[in-house]
Design a protein that fits this description.
Layout lengths: L3 H12 L19 H15 L12 H14 L1
């Protein structure tokens, strides 16, 4: 969960959603993020954290995204 705060900040910066509304179990639908919004979020996360988010369509929640990123950061 080390990357949660940074991912939360990226989502906030790109969408304007208040930080306290971006929870681990939040879905894109709950955050009112459409497919293109999520692609932008993923691209920014990949660039900011130097990771590659594979199987983007399988990501359902912020937690899924955090887990994907954390796995790569622990391997590095």
């Amino acid at each position: 969960m080390q990357s949660f705060r940074r991912i939360q900040e990226i989502i906030h910066e790109l969408s304007g959603i208040p930080l306290d509304s971006i929870l681990l179990d939040s879905t894109a639908d709950q955050l009112n993020l459409h497919e293109l919004d999520m692609e932008e979020v993923v691209l920014e996360i990949e660039e900011a954290l130097n990771v590659l988010v594979e199987n983007e369509r399988e990501i359902r929640t912020v937690r899924d995204l955090v887990d994907c990123v954390d796995k790569q950061l622990h391997v590095a």
